[in-house]
Amino acid sequence: TALMEANTAAKVRLLVARRITRPVSALTRGVTRVAGGDLSQALPVQSTDEVLASYRGRGPFGKWTDEALRLYVEHGFAREDGRVRLKCPPAIEAQVFSMEPLYDLWLALERILVPTLLMRGEESEAFSANDSAEALRRLPRGELVTIPQTTHTFPMEVPGEVAERILTFAA
Fold this sequence. Notes:
By secondary structure, this protein is mainly α. It is built from eight helices and four strands, in the order αααββααβαβαα.
């Protein structure tokens, strides 16, 4: 009987381990494919709670307020076939990023003749201090505000401060 109990305990441990490792392995494979540029991949999550838990405090969502992250997940994801997926199809998202080189935005800035508020997060790698200085140089009536200790997604990190800066500029 001791052998049967040990065998049963081993089977239970294996089943529990599989229930934990299979979803983690599937998520890891999906993230790896997406990171490699395969934006057709859907991450294997079954609830918005899973999305919230996996995004909270990580990567580009690391500094987002809880409310901003909750709203992003609530309105940016849809439930389909027992899974949760981004509402924006991955192919469309990839198309948005691939269009960037098609337009010379530097020249477009020079044609903006109205007062313009240019904002950036201090820690943004996508819109660096050098980029913002160049943009400001090209904006005839531009004003630059750099929000301290924020990233490229600063509106989701300090929404109250961003709103206040915009209202002050527009006044």
